[in-house]
Amino acid sequence: MTADISLIRSSFAAVQPHSSQVTEYFYDHLFTHNPGVRPLFAAHLDEQRDRLWAALGALVANLENTDTLTGMLQNLGRRHAGYGALAEHYPAVGTSLIAALRHCAGDAWTPAVEESWTAVYGVISSTMVAAGEAAQS
Ligand code: HEM
């Protein structure tokens, strides 16, 4: 991973006070650019927003704990296969997540921060997709 974990943590801390703005922006962005994924989600996203944020926080807290991180991502990936999330959806979700973080982080967002989040999302998505596909085969 070419991610700088301290940059991930400092940028996540910068958006933490605005978490509901981040998740709102994220879902708006995702559904505007990928209307086809909207039906996979429940009509009301209130709880879902909090769960997404809590999961991201847990992942950010465990970036150095490779075994814990991998186990969390595999479980998440297996559950997502059950929600109908496909490999092809993951890049779109990553784009929307990074757009939301960038929008809300203000001056805390730099090219190095973006590069680190892109690298971390690559690990998140590849681990989730592999576990989801293994669960379905
Ligand atoms: C950074 C990657 C992701 C994280 C951290 C994440 C996190 C979560 C969490 C915490 C939940 C709540 C249920 C649970 O814990 O199993 C959830 C549900 C869900 N996620 Fe994700 N997710 C990610 C990527 C994706 C992707 C790529 C899709 C594809 C469209 C997706 C679609 C869904 C759907 C459809 C639900 C169920 C929502 C509902 O019941 O309304 N997620 N996600």
Structure description:
With 137 residues, this protein is an all-alpha fold. It is globular and about 45 Å long. It is built from 6 helices and no strands. It has one domain: Globin-like. Helices cover 75% and strands 0% of the residues. The longest helix has 26 residues, at 111-136. The mean pLDDT is 96. The two termini are 28 Å apart.
What's the quick description here?
With 137 residues, the chain is mostly helical. The chain has helices spanning 5-15, 19-33, 46-61, 66-83, 89-105, 111-136.
Mind telling me the CATH class?
Mainly Alpha
Largest sheet: none
Could you give me the name of the CATH homologous superfamily?
Answer: Globins
Listing every helix as H and every strand as E from the N terminus to the C terminus, the arrangement reads: HHHHHH
What is the fold-level CATH name, i.e. the topology? Answer: Globin-like
Return Rg in Å. 14 Å
Number of helices: 6
Q: What is the average per-residue confidence, as pLDDT, rounded to a whole number? A: 96
**How helical, in percent, are the residues?**
over 70%
Question: Span between N and C termini?
Answer: 28 Å
Structural class by secondary-structure content:
mainly alpha
The ligands found in this model are: protoporphyrin IX containing FE
Portion in strands: under 5%
* Name given to the CATH architecture: Orthogonal Bundle
* Count of structural domains: 1
Low-confidence stretches: none
Number of DSSP E strands: 0
The coarse overall form would be globular
GO molecular function: FAD binding; heme binding; metal ion binding; nitric oxide dioxygenase NAD(P)H activity; oxygen binding; oxygen carrier activity
Pfam families: Globin
Family: Belongs to the globin family.
Protein name: Globin domain-containing protein
